[in-house]
Protein backbone atom coordinates (compact mmCIF):
# COMPACT_ATOMS: atom_id res chain seq x y z
CA UNK A 1 0.00 0.00 0.00
CA UNK A 2 2.47 2.70 -1.09
CA UNK A 3 -0.22 5.39 -1.05
CA UNK A 4 -1.04 4.88 2.63
CA UNK A 5 2.66 4.85 3.34
CA UNK A 6 3.10 8.27 1.77
CA UNK A 7 0.19 9.68 3.75
CA UNK A 8 1.65 8.36 6.95
CA UNK A 9 5.06 9.87 6.17
CA UNK A 10 3.51 13.24 5.39
CA UNK A 11 1.47 13.18 8.58
CA UNK A 12 4.58 12.58 10.65
CA UNK A 13 6.23 15.85 9.52
CA UNK A 14 5.70 18.31 12.38
CA UNK A 15 3.57 21.31 11.38
CA UNK A 16 6.27 23.83 12.38
CA UNK A 17 8.89 22.21 10.14
CA UNK A 18 8.58 24.05 6.82
CA UNK A 19 9.78 22.19 3.76
CA UNK A 20 13.34 22.92 2.69
CA UNK A 21 13.30 25.58 -0.04
CA UNK A 22 16.40 25.73 -2.29
CA UNK A 23 15.39 29.29 -3.26
CA UNK A 24 16.10 30.34 0.32
CA UNK A 25 19.60 28.84 0.10
CA UNK A 26 20.72 30.11 -3.30
CA UNK A 27 22.75 33.09 -2.03
CA UNK A 28 22.89 35.92 -4.58
CA UNK A 29 20.80 33.92 -7.08
CA UNK A 30 17.83 33.82 -4.67
CA UNK A 31 14.84 35.91 -5.70
CA UNK A 32 13.92 38.23 -2.82
CA UNK A 33 12.44 36.74 0.35
CA UNK A 34 12.21 38.14 3.89
CA UNK A 35 15.07 36.76 5.97
CA UNK A 36 14.16 34.84 9.12
CA UNK A 37 14.60 36.78 12.35
CA UNK A 38 17.88 35.18 13.45
CA UNK A 39 17.96 37.26 16.64
CA UNK A 40 14.38 36.29 17.50
CA UNK A 41 13.15 39.90 17.39
CA UNK A 42 9.59 40.57 16.17
CA UNK A 43 9.33 42.11 12.69
CA UNK A 44 6.78 44.61 13.96
CA UNK A 45 7.56 48.15 15.01
CA UNK A 46 7.45 48.00 18.83
CA UNK A 47 4.23 49.15 20.46
CA UNK A 48 4.36 52.83 21.39
CA UNK A 49 6.90 53.60 18.64
CA UNK A 50 6.68 55.06 15.17
CA UNK A 51 9.46 55.11 12.61
CA UNK A 52 10.09 58.77 11.76
CA UNK A 53 13.12 58.35 9.47
CA UNK A 54 14.65 55.41 7.61
CA UNK A 55 17.52 54.69 5.21
CA UNK A 56 17.87 51.74 2.85
CA UNK A 57 20.78 50.53 0.77
CA UNK A 58 19.31 48.09 -1.74
CA UNK A 59 20.68 45.59 -4.25
CA UNK A 60 18.99 45.75 -7.66
CA UNK A 61 16.15 43.33 -8.33
CA UNK A 62 16.26 39.88 -9.94
CA UNK A 63 18.04 39.93 -13.29
CA UNK A 64 19.17 37.90 -16.24
CA UNK A 65 22.69 36.41 -16.05
CA UNK A 66 25.90 38.37 -16.54
CA UNK A 67 27.36 37.63 -20.00
CA UNK A 68 30.05 35.30 -18.54
CA UNK A 69 27.46 33.25 -16.68
CA UNK A 70 25.28 33.19 -19.77
CA UNK A 71 28.19 31.66 -21.70
CA UNK A 72 28.23 28.90 -19.08
CA UNK A 73 24.51 28.28 -19.63
CA UNK A 74 25.05 28.08 -23.41
CA UNK A 75 27.92 25.63 -22.95
CA UNK A 76 25.76 23.42 -20.74
CA UNK A 77 23.00 23.57 -23.36
CA UNK A 78 25.45 22.60 -26.12
CA UNK A 79 26.66 19.68 -24.00
CA UNK A 80 23.10 18.45 -23.43
CA UNK A 81 22.25 18.84 -27.13
CA UNK A 82 25.37 17.69 -28.94
CA UNK A 83 25.81 14.32 -27.27
CA UNK A 84 23.83 11.09 -27.56
CA UNK A 85 22.93 9.69 -24.13
CA UNK A 86 20.20 8.36 -21.90
CA UNK A 87 19.03 10.45 -18.92
CA UNK A 88 16.67 9.22 -16.25
CA UNK A 89 15.15 10.13 -12.89
CA UNK A 90 15.89 13.70 -11.81
CA UNK A 91 17.81 14.35 -15.04
CA UNK A 92 15.19 13.05 -17.49
CA UNK A 93 14.30 16.65 -18.41
CA UNK A 94 17.74 17.78 -19.55
CA UNK A 95 17.44 16.82 -23.26
CA UNK A 96 14.42 19.13 -23.51
CA UNK A 97 15.81 21.96 -21.38
CA UNK A 98 16.62 25.27 -23.10
CA UNK A 99 18.31 28.27 -21.45
CA UNK A 100 15.70 30.88 -20.41
CA UNK A 101 17.13 33.68 -22.55
CA UNK A 102 15.23 34.30 -25.76
CA UNK A 103 16.26 37.88 -26.64
CA UNK A 104 20.02 38.03 -26.22
CA UNK A 105 20.58 41.76 -26.94
CA UNK A 106 18.04 42.80 -24.29
CA UNK A 107 18.25 40.25 -21.53
CA UNK A 108 21.68 39.33 -20.10
CA UNK A 109 22.72 42.02 -17.54
CA UNK A 110 19.24 43.53 -17.27
CA UNK A 111 16.35 43.19 -14.82
CA UNK A 112 13.83 40.43 -15.32
CA UNK A 113 10.14 41.12 -14.85
CA UNK A 114 10.46 39.52 -11.40
CA UNK A 115 13.12 42.12 -10.59
CA UNK A 116 10.80 44.90 -11.72
CA UNK A 117 8.03 43.48 -9.53
CA UNK A 118 10.35 43.17 -6.51
CA UNK A 119 11.28 46.84 -6.86
CA UNK A 120 7.68 48.00 -7.35
CA UNK A 121 6.55 45.93 -4.32
CA UNK A 122 9.22 47.47 -2.10
CA UNK A 123 7.87 50.88 -3.07
CA UNK A 124 4.33 49.84 -2.19
CA UNK A 125 5.46 48.22 1.09
CA UNK A 126 7.52 51.17 2.33
CA UNK A 127 4.84 53.73 1.44
CA UNK A 128 2.38 51.80 3.58
CA UNK A 129 4.82 50.80 6.33
CA UNK A 130 6.04 54.31 7.13
CA UNK A 131 3.30 56.62 5.84
CA UNK A 132 5.89 59.37 5.33
CA UNK A 133 4.50 60.64 2.06
CA UNK A 134 1.18 62.39 1.62
CA UNK A 135 -0.87 61.97 -1.52
CA UNK A 136 0.52 64.18 -4.28
CA UNK A 137 4.02 64.44 -2.78
CA UNK A 138 7.17 63.64 -4.72
CA UNK A 139 10.13 61.54 -3.63
CA UNK A 140 13.83 61.72 -4.50
CA UNK A 141 15.94 58.54 -4.45
CA UNK A 142 19.63 57.87 -5.16
CA UNK A 143 20.98 55.21 -7.49
CA UNK A 144 24.22 53.91 -8.94
CA UNK A 145 23.91 54.35 -12.68
CA UNK A 146 24.14 50.88 -14.20
CA UNK A 147 20.90 50.28 -16.09
CA UNK A 148 19.55 47.46 -13.91
CA UNK A 149 20.14 49.54 -10.78
CA UNK A 150 18.47 52.64 -12.26
CA UNK A 151 15.60 50.46 -13.42
CA UNK A 152 15.21 49.12 -9.87
CA UNK A 153 15.13 52.71 -8.55
CA UNK A 154 12.57 53.58 -11.22
CA UNK A 155 10.22 50.68 -10.47
CA UNK A 156 10.60 51.35 -6.74
CA UNK A 157 9.55 54.95 -7.28
CA UNK A 158 6.61 53.95 -9.44
CA UNK A 159 5.43 51.54 -6.74
CA UNK A 160 5.96 54.15 -4.04
CA UNK A 161 3.93 56.75 -5.96
CA UNK A 162 1.32 54.37 -7.35
CA UNK A 163 -1.61 55.45 -5.18
CA UNK A 164 -4.43 57.68 -6.37
CA UNK A 165 -5.37 58.75 -9.88
CA UNK A 166 -2.00 60.15 -10.93
CA UNK A 167 -1.93 58.06 -14.09
CA UNK A 168 -4.00 60.82 -15.68
CA UNK A 169 -2.03 63.71 -14.13
CA UNK A 170 1.59 62.78 -14.78
CA UNK A 171 2.84 66.28 -13.95
CA UNK A 172 2.03 65.53 -10.30
CA UNK A 173 3.38 62.88 -7.96
CA UNK A 174 6.73 62.53 -9.66
CA UNK A 175 9.87 60.84 -8.42
CA UNK A 176 13.41 62.07 -9.00
CA UNK A 177 16.40 59.75 -9.24
CA UNK A 178 19.81 61.20 -8.48
CA UNK A 179 22.10 58.97 -10.50
CA UNK A 180 25.69 58.52 -9.31
CA UNK A 181 28.60 57.14 -11.36
CA UNK A 182 28.67 53.36 -10.95
CA UNK A 183 31.83 51.48 -9.92
CA UNK A 184 34.29 54.21 -10.93
CA UNK A 185 37.51 54.95 -9.06
CA UNK A 186 37.31 58.77 -9.06
CA UNK A 187 34.41 59.39 -6.67
CA UNK A 188 36.13 57.62 -3.73
CA UNK A 189 33.86 57.38 -0.65
CA UNK A 190 31.27 59.75 -2.13
CA UNK A 191 29.45 56.97 -3.94
CA UNK A 192 26.97 54.11 -3.65
CA UNK A 193 29.73 51.86 -5.03
CA UNK A 194 32.65 53.01 -2.83
CA UNK A 195 34.55 49.70 -3.03
CA UNK A 196 35.63 50.68 -6.56
CA UNK A 197 37.06 53.92 -5.13
CA UNK A 198 39.33 52.18 -2.60
CA UNK A 199 42.45 50.78 -4.32
CA UNK A 200 43.44 48.68 -1.26
CA UNK A 201 40.08 46.91 -1.12
CA UNK A 202 40.85 44.40 -3.87
CA UNK A 203 44.06 43.38 -2.06
CA UNK A 204 41.97 42.38 0.97
CA UNK A 205 39.66 40.18 -1.08
CA UNK A 206 40.63 36.54 -0.57
CA UNK A 207 37.27 35.14 -1.63
CA UNK A 208 38.36 33.56 -4.89
CA UNK A 209 40.64 30.92 -3.32
CA UNK A 210 38.26 30.34 -0.39
CA UNK A 211 35.31 29.74 -2.69
CA UNK A 212 37.12 27.64 -5.28
CA UNK A 213 38.64 25.43 -2.58
CA UNK A 214 35.32 24.87 -0.84
CA UNK A 215 33.49 24.11 -4.10
CA UNK A 216 36.09 21.45 -4.86
CA UNK A 217 35.01 19.62 -1.70
CA UNK A 218 31.46 18.93 -2.93
CA UNK A 219 30.94 19.56 -6.65
CA UNK A 220 32.69 16.39 -7.82
CA UNK A 221 30.71 14.32 -5.32
CA UNK A 222 27.46 15.74 -6.65
CA UNK A 223 28.60 15.04 -10.22
CA UNK A 224 29.39 11.42 -9.27
CA UNK A 225 25.94 11.00 -7.70
CA UNK A 226 24.13 12.45 -10.72
CA UNK A 227 26.22 10.62 -13.32
CA UNK A 228 24.48 7.41 -12.18
CA UNK A 229 21.34 8.77 -13.89
CA UNK A 230 23.22 9.25 -17.18
CA UNK A 231 24.51 6.82 -19.74
CA UNK A 232 26.69 8.36 -22.47
CA UNK A 233 27.16 11.77 -20.81
CA UNK A 234 29.40 12.73 -17.88
CA UNK A 235 28.75 15.83 -15.77
CA UNK A 236 31.74 17.59 -14.22
CA UNK A 237 32.19 20.10 -11.40
CA UNK A 238 31.69 23.07 -13.75
CA UNK A 239 28.35 21.69 -14.92
CA UNK A 240 27.21 21.31 -11.30
CA UNK A 241 28.05 24.95 -10.60
CA UNK A 242 25.98 26.11 -13.57
CA UNK A 243 23.07 23.77 -12.78
CA UNK A 244 22.83 24.99 -9.17
CA UNK A 245 22.88 28.63 -10.33
CA UNK A 246 20.04 27.84 -12.72
CA UNK A 247 17.69 26.99 -9.85
CA UNK A 248 17.43 30.58 -8.62
CA UNK A 249 17.90 32.24 -11.99
CA UNK A 250 15.41 30.19 -13.91
CA UNK A 251 12.88 30.40 -11.07
CA UNK A 252 12.90 34.21 -11.29
CA UNK A 253 13.22 34.45 -15.07
CA UNK A 254 10.52 32.06 -16.24
CA UNK A 255 9.30 30.16 -13.19
CA UNK A 256 10.85 26.81 -14.20
CA UNK A 257 12.25 25.17 -11.04
CA UNK A 258 13.33 21.81 -12.46
CA UNK A 259 16.99 22.41 -11.56
CA UNK A 260 15.93 23.12 -7.96
CA UNK A 261 14.63 19.54 -7.74
CA UNK A 262 17.84 17.91 -8.97
CA UNK A 263 19.87 18.49 -5.79
CA UNK A 264 19.58 17.25 -2.23
CA UNK A 265 19.20 19.56 0.77
CA UNK A 266 22.79 19.04 1.92
CA UNK A 267 23.99 19.89 -1.61
CA UNK A 268 22.12 23.21 -1.42
CA UNK A 269 23.69 23.95 1.96
CA UNK A 270 27.17 23.41 0.50
CA UNK A 271 26.31 25.60 -2.49
CA UNK A 272 25.06 28.31 -0.13
CA UNK A 273 28.16 28.12 2.05
CA UNK A 274 30.44 28.67 -0.95
CA UNK A 275 28.60 31.98 -1.42
CA UNK A 276 28.82 32.76 2.28
CA UNK A 277 32.60 32.46 1.94
CA UNK A 278 32.49 34.49 -1.28
CA UNK A 279 30.80 37.46 0.43
CA UNK A 280 32.43 37.13 3.86
CA UNK A 281 35.98 37.11 2.47
CA UNK A 282 35.24 39.22 -0.62
CA UNK A 283 33.19 42.22 0.50
CA UNK A 284 32.27 41.34 4.10
CA UNK A 285 34.03 41.26 7.48
CA UNK A 286 36.76 38.89 6.20
CA UNK A 287 38.11 41.63 3.92
CA UNK A 288 40.11 44.02 6.17
CA UNK A 289 39.00 47.01 4.03
CA UNK A 290 35.31 46.12 4.09
CA UNK A 291 34.35 48.24 7.11
CA UNK A 292 36.46 51.11 5.74
CA UNK A 293 34.40 51.06 2.55
CA UNK A 294 31.02 50.63 4.28
CA UNK A 295 31.58 53.28 6.94
CA UNK A 296 30.96 56.47 4.87
CA UNK A 297 27.34 55.48 4.13
CA UNK A 298 26.79 54.55 7.79
CA UNK A 299 28.26 57.85 9.03
CA UNK A 300 26.19 59.89 6.56
CA UNK A 301 22.98 58.21 7.71
CA UNK A 302 23.88 58.41 11.40
CA UNK A 303 24.45 62.16 11.02
CA UNK A 304 21.09 62.57 9.22
CA UNK A 305 19.39 60.63 12.03
CA UNK A 306 20.83 63.10 14.56
CA UNK A 307 19.36 65.98 12.52
CA UNK A 308 16.02 64.20 12.20
CA UNK A 309 13.66 63.85 9.23
CA UNK A 310 13.51 66.45 6.44
CA UNK A 311 16.61 68.34 7.57
CA UNK A 312 19.90 68.92 5.81
CA UNK A 313 23.50 69.55 6.83
CA UNK A 314 24.86 73.13 7.13
CA UNK A 315 26.57 72.82 3.72
CA UNK A 316 23.63 70.92 2.18
CA UNK A 317 21.77 71.94 -0.95
CA UNK A 318 19.51 68.88 -0.96
CA UNK A 319 17.08 68.02 1.85
CA UNK A 320 16.76 64.24 1.88
CA UNK A 321 13.24 62.88 2.40
CA UNK A 322 12.45 61.01 5.62
CA UNK A 323 12.89 57.80 3.61
CA UNK A 324 16.43 57.83 2.22
CA UNK A 325 16.76 55.21 -0.54
CA UNK A 326 20.03 54.19 -2.25
CA UNK A 327 20.17 51.54 -4.98
CA UNK A 328 23.36 49.65 -5.74
CA UNK A 329 24.94 46.19 -6.27
CA UNK A 330 25.29 43.08 -4.08
CA UNK A 331 28.92 43.74 -3.10
CA UNK A 332 28.06 47.06 -1.49
CA UNK A 333 25.81 45.53 1.20
CA UNK A 334 28.35 43.38 3.14
CA UNK A 335 30.61 46.44 3.77
CA UNK A 336 27.71 48.10 5.62
CA UNK A 337 27.35 44.96 7.78
CA UNK A 338 31.09 45.19 8.55
CA UNK A 339 30.89 48.90 9.30
CA UNK A 340 28.03 48.22 11.73
CA UNK A 341 30.11 45.48 13.42
CA UNK A 342 27.44 42.83 12.78
CA UNK A 343 27.74 39.10 12.17
CA UNK A 344 31.43 38.83 13.01
CA UNK A 345 31.43 37.88 16.67
CA UNK A 346 29.46 35.29 18.52
CA UNK A 347 28.92 33.92 21.98
CA UNK A 348 29.78 30.54 20.42
CA UNK A 349 33.55 30.45 19.97
CA UNK A 350 34.99 29.45 16.63
CA UNK A 351 32.20 30.82 14.42
CA UNK A 352 34.17 33.78 12.99
CA UNK A 353 36.16 34.22 10.91
CA UNK A 354 34.12 31.73 8.85
CA UNK A 355 35.84 28.35 8.53
CA UNK A 356 37.21 27.59 5.07
CA UNK A 357 36.20 23.95 5.41
CA UNK A 358 33.39 23.48 7.95
CA UNK A 359 30.18 25.52 7.93
CA UNK A 360 29.12 26.48 11.46
CA UNK A 361 25.36 26.23 11.96
CA UNK A 362 25.69 29.10 14.48
CA UNK A 363 26.83 31.65 11.88
CA UNK A 364 24.47 34.52 11.15
CA UNK A 365 26.44 35.82 8.18
CA UNK A 366 24.55 34.03 5.39
CA UNK A 367 24.57 35.25 1.82
CA UNK A 368 20.97 34.13 1.23
CA UNK A 369 19.76 36.35 4.10
CA UNK A 370 21.79 39.38 2.98
CA UNK A 371 22.25 39.58 -0.80
CA UNK A 372 19.33 37.87 -2.51
CA UNK A 373 18.10 39.95 -5.41
CA UNK A 374 16.70 43.25 -4.07
CA UNK A 375 18.19 42.46 -0.65
CA UNK A 376 18.82 45.44 1.61
CA UNK A 377 20.34 46.77 4.79
CA UNK A 378 18.12 49.37 6.45
CA UNK A 379 18.37 51.66 9.45
CA UNK A 380 15.21 52.96 11.08
CA UNK A 381 14.94 55.87 13.51
CA UNK A 382 12.08 55.24 15.92
CA UNK A 383 10.25 57.71 18.13
CA UNK A 384 8.95 55.86 21.16
CA UNK A 385 6.79 57.21 23.96
CA UNK A 386 4.63 55.66 26.59
CA UNK A 387 2.60 52.65 25.45
CA UNK A 388 -0.66 53.78 23.77
CA UNK A 389 -3.40 54.39 26.36
CA UNK A 390 -6.31 51.96 26.58
CA UNK A 391 -8.84 54.78 26.88
CA UNK A 392 -8.75 58.30 25.41
CA UNK A 393 -11.05 61.31 25.56
CA UNK A 394 -11.47 63.30 22.36
CA UNK A 395 -12.58 66.95 22.54
CA UNK A 396 -14.23 68.19 19.35
CA UNK A 397 -11.90 70.27 17.20
CA UNK A 398 -8.87 69.71 19.44
CA UNK A 399 -5.71 67.99 18.18
CA UNK A 400 -4.73 64.83 20.09
CA UNK A 401 -2.13 65.32 22.83
CA UNK A 402 1.43 64.58 21.80
CA UNK A 403 3.37 62.18 23.99
CA UNK A 404 7.00 63.12 24.52
CA UNK A 405 9.23 60.61 22.80
CA UNK A 406 12.81 59.35 22.73
CA UNK A 407 14.68 58.22 19.63
CA UNK A 408 16.00 54.73 18.98
CA UNK A 409 17.68 52.97 16.06
CA UNK A 410 16.96 49.57 14.57
CA UNK A 411 18.84 47.66 11.86
CA UNK A 412 16.87 45.51 9.44
CA UNK A 413 18.45 43.17 6.92
CA UNK A 414 15.95 41.87 4.37
CA UNK A 415 13.25 42.94 6.84
CA UNK A 416 14.60 40.86 9.75
CA UNK A 417 15.51 43.07 12.75
CA UNK A 418 19.16 42.60 13.74
CA UNK A 419 20.50 43.45 17.20
CA UNK A 420 23.34 45.96 17.39
CA UNK A 421 26.07 44.37 19.56
CA UNK A 422 25.89 45.65 23.13
CA UNK A 423 23.06 48.07 22.37
CA UNK A 424 19.63 46.52 22.79
CA UNK A 425 18.09 48.32 25.79
CA UNK A 426 15.35 50.07 23.77
CA UNK A 427 11.88 48.76 22.87
CA UNK A 428 12.09 45.68 20.64
CA UNK A 429 15.85 45.36 21.28
CA UNK A 430 16.55 48.73 19.66
CA UNK A 431 19.51 50.97 20.48
CA UNK A 432 19.05 54.50 21.82
CA UNK A 433 19.95 57.11 19.20
CA UNK A 434 22.56 58.61 21.54
CA UNK A 435 24.26 55.24 22.08
CA UNK A 436 24.03 54.45 18.37
CA UNK A 437 25.72 57.66 17.29
CA UNK A 438 28.43 57.19 19.94
CA UNK A 439 28.94 53.61 18.67
CA UNK A 440 29.26 54.87 15.07
CA UNK A 441 31.42 57.90 15.85
CA UNK A 442 33.80 56.15 18.24
CA UNK A 443 33.89 52.33 18.09
CA UNK A 444 33.01 51.82 14.44
CA UNK A 445 34.94 54.87 13.20
CA UNK A 446 38.05 53.56 14.96
CA UNK A 447 37.61 50.08 13.45
CA UNK A 448 37.04 51.46 9.94
CA UNK A 449 39.93 53.91 10.07
CA UNK A 450 40.39 56.82 7.71
CA UNK A 451 39.15 55.97 4.20
CA UNK A 452 41.75 58.05 2.33
CA UNK A 453 44.66 56.66 4.34
CA UNK A 454 43.60 53.03 4.58
CA UNK A 455 42.68 52.87 0.92
CA UNK A 456 46.08 54.33 -0.05
CA UNK A 457 44.76 57.57 -1.56
CA UNK A 458 46.97 60.07 0.34
CA UNK A 459 48.62 61.28 -2.88
CA UNK A 460 45.33 62.00 -4.65
CA UNK A 461 44.53 65.64 -3.93
CA UNK A 462 40.77 65.41 -4.39
CA UNK A 463 40.21 62.03 -2.73
CA UNK A 464 37.42 62.16 -0.15
CA UNK A 465 36.53 59.83 2.70
CA UNK A 466 32.99 61.13 3.16
CA UNK A 467 29.69 60.30 1.51
CA UNK A 468 28.06 63.73 1.13
CA UNK A 469 25.86 63.01 -1.89
CA UNK A 470 22.64 62.75 0.12
CA UNK A 471 22.85 66.43 1.08
CA UNK A 472 25.32 68.06 -1.33
CA UNK A 473 24.69 67.61 -5.04
CA UNK A 474 27.94 66.29 -6.56
CA UNK A 475 29.16 67.92 -9.78
CA UNK A 476 28.50 65.06 -12.14
CA UNK A 477 25.14 63.73 -10.99
CA UNK A 478 22.39 63.15 -13.46
CA UNK A 479 18.82 63.57 -12.39
CA UNK A 480 16.00 61.68 -13.98
CA UNK A 481 12.30 62.19 -13.47
CA UNK A 482 10.07 59.20 -13.06
CA UNK A 483 6.51 59.79 -14.13
CA UNK A 484 3.75 57.28 -14.06
CA UNK A 485 2.92 57.72 -17.72
C1 LIG B 1 26.32 22.30 -30.22
O1 LIG B 1 25.06 22.72 -29.83
C2 LIG B 1 24.77 24.09 -30.09
C3 LIG B 1 23.41 24.38 -29.50
O2 LIG B 1 22.46 23.46 -29.92
C4 LIG B 1 24.85 24.33 -31.57
O3 LIG B 1 24.60 25.70 -31.84
C5 LIG B 1 26.23 23.98 -32.04
O4 LIG B 1 26.31 24.12 -33.43
C6 LIG B 1 26.59 22.56 -31.65
N1 LIG B 1 28.00 22.31 -31.89
C7 LIG B 1 28.44 21.19 -32.42
C8 LIG B 1 29.92 21.07 -32.59
O5 LIG B 1 27.69 20.29 -32.75
C1 LIG C 1 6.78 67.19 -8.31
O1 LIG C 1 7.83 67.50 -9.20
C2 LIG C 1 7.36 68.13 -10.39
C3 LIG C 1 8.55 68.24 -11.31
O2 LIG C 1 9.62 68.89 -10.68
C4 LIG C 1 6.76 69.47 -10.06
O3 LIG C 1 6.27 70.07 -11.24
C5 LIG C 1 5.61 69.24 -9.11
O4 LIG C 1 5.10 70.46 -8.68
C6 LIG C 1 6.07 68.44 -7.90
N1 LIG C 1 4.92 68.08 -7.13
C7 LIG C 1 4.85 68.23 -5.84
C8 LIG C 1 3.58 67.81 -5.21
O5 LIG C 1 5.77 68.71 -5.18
C1 LIG D 1 41.68 54.90 -11.76
O1 LIG D 1 41.79 53.96 -12.81
C2 LIG D 1 42.60 54.45 -13.88
C3 LIG D 1 42.50 53.45 -15.02
O2 LIG D 1 42.73 52.16 -14.58
C4 LIG D 1 44.03 54.62 -13.38
O3 LIG D 1 44.85 55.12 -14.40
C5 LIG D 1 44.01 55.63 -12.22
O4 LIG D 1 45.30 55.73 -11.65
C6 LIG D 1 43.04 55.18 -11.13
N1 LIG D 1 42.90 56.22 -10.13
C7 LIG D 1 43.01 55.99 -8.84
C8 LIG D 1 42.77 57.15 -7.93
O5 LIG D 1 43.25 54.88 -8.37
C1 LIG E 1 39.40 64.16 -9.00
O1 LIG E 1 40.32 64.57 -9.96
C2 LIG E 1 40.35 63.74 -11.12
C3 LIG E 1 41.53 64.20 -11.99
O2 LIG E 1 41.50 65.56 -12.18
C4 LIG E 1 39.01 63.84 -11.83
O3 LIG E 1 38.99 63.01 -12.98
C5 LIG E 1 37.93 63.37 -10.87
O4 LIG E 1 36.64 63.50 -11.43
C6 LIG E 1 37.98 64.18 -9.57
N1 LIG E 1 37.04 63.59 -8.64
C7 LIG E 1 36.20 64.32 -7.92
C8 LIG E 1 35.31 63.58 -6.99
O5 LIG E 1 36.13 65.53 -8.00
C1 LIG F 1 35.96 40.14 11.86
O1 LIG F 1 36.55 39.22 12.74
C2 LIG F 1 37.90 38.91 12.41
C3 LIG F 1 38.35 37.80 13.34
O2 LIG F 1 38.17 38.14 14.67
C4 LIG F 1 38.74 40.18 12.56
O3 LIG F 1 40.07 39.91 12.20
C5 LIG F 1 38.16 41.26 11.64
O4 LIG F 1 38.84 42.48 11.84
C6 LIG F 1 36.69 41.48 11.90
N1 LIG F 1 36.14 42.36 10.89
C7 LIG F 1 35.47 43.46 11.21
C8 LIG F 1 34.93 44.26 10.05
O5 LIG F 1 35.26 43.83 12.33
C1 LIG G 1 1.89 67.66 18.18
O1 LIG G 1 3.06 67.70 17.35
C2 LIG G 1 2.80 68.18 16.06
C3 LIG G 1 4.08 67.98 15.23
O2 LIG G 1 5.21 68.42 15.96
C4 LIG G 1 2.33 69.62 16.12
O3 LIG G 1 2.09 70.11 14.83
C5 LIG G 1 1.06 69.67 16.95
O4 LIG G 1 0.65 71.02 17.11
C6 LIG G 1 1.28 69.04 18.32
N1 LIG G 1 -0.01 68.92 19.00
C7 LIG G 1 -0.21 69.41 20.24
C8 LIG G 1 -1.58 69.22 20.83
O5 LIG G 1 0.66 69.97 20.87
Automatic annotation (TrEMBL):
Keywords: Disulfide bond, Glycoprotein, Hydrolase, Signal
Active site residues per record: 60 (nucleophile), 330 (proton donor)
InterPro entries in alphabetical order: Acid_Pase_AS (IPR033379), His_Pase_clade-2 (IPR000560), His_PPase_superfam (IPR029033), Histidine_acid_Pase_euk (IPR016274)
Any Pfam family hit: His_Phos_2
Disulfide bond entries: 49-384, 247-260, 423-431
A Gene Ontology molecular function term of the record: acid phosphatase activity
Listed PROSITE patterns: HIS_ACID_PHOSPHAT_1, HIS_ACID_PHOSPHAT_2
Cellular component aspect of the GO annotation: fungal-type cell wall
Signal peptide positions on this chain: 1-19
Protein name stated in the entry: Phosphoglycerate mutase-like protein
Amino acid sequence: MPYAHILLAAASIPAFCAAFDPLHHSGPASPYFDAPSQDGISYDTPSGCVVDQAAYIVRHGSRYPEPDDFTGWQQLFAKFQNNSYTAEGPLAFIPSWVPPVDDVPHEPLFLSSTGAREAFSLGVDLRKRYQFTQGGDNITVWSASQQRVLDTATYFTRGYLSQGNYLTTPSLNRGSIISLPDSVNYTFANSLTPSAGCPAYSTGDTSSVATTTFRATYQNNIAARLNKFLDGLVLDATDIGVMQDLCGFQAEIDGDTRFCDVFEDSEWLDYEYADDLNYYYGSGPGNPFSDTVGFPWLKAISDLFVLGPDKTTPDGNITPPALIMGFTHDNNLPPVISALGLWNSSATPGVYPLSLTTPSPARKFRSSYLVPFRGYVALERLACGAPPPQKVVHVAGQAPMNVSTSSYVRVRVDRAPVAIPGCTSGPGSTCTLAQFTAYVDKTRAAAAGDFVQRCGLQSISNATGEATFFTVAPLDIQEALVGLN
